[in-house]
Design brief:
This protein has 145 residues and is mainly α. The protein contains five helices and two strands.
Length: 145
């Protein structure tokens, strides 16, 4: 009898932990999505539906992951060039912002249900860069090492 009870307790515990993780992920993704919609409204971006925004974000992340490889390669090559610390950090930040800009601009071209101005693409690129560098706790350590 104890064996069945212990197995059932583990199953219930796993279910509760899994449900909590799903709720936390849903809250995080929802706040990110609705925060992104708020940013787009402030910037005056026109969109037809929420699915257009979802597709736009999907393309940004797909092309962002591809262009990030190029960014990392250029940063690695600059690291071996032994530049001044300030010059290296600013040029690495410029390269990251440029490739983020490129991925956002390509996503804007591909999604027909959303119209983003160049100013909004630029600000969105800087915002994505700031979010990425804030979430990456070793940003300055990796760039300067």
């Amino acid at each position: 009898m104890k064996r069945k009870s212990r197995g059932m307790d583990r199953l219930i515990g796993f279910f509760i932990v899994g449900t909590m993780v799903l709720i936390i992920l849903a809250v995080l993704m929802g706040s990110y999505f609705f925060g992104f919609i708020g940013f787009l409204r402030v910037m005056g971006v026109e969109y037809e539906s929420c699915w257009a925004i979802c597709l736009f974000l999907f393309f940004v992340f797909v092309f962002g992951s591809i262009t990030e490889l190029f960014s990392k390669v250029l940063t690695f090559l600059m690291k071996n060039a032994r530049l001044d610390k300030v010059l290296f950090v600013t040029s690495a930040a410029f390269i990251d912002i440029f490739f983020i800009f490129l991925s956002v601009y390509i996503a804007d071209l591909l999604v027909s249900g959303i119209t983003v101005s160049i100013l909004a693409v630029t600000l969105l690129s800087v915002l994505f860069f700031l979010m990425e560098s804030a979430l990456d706790s070793q940003f300055l350590r990796k760039k300067t090492s």
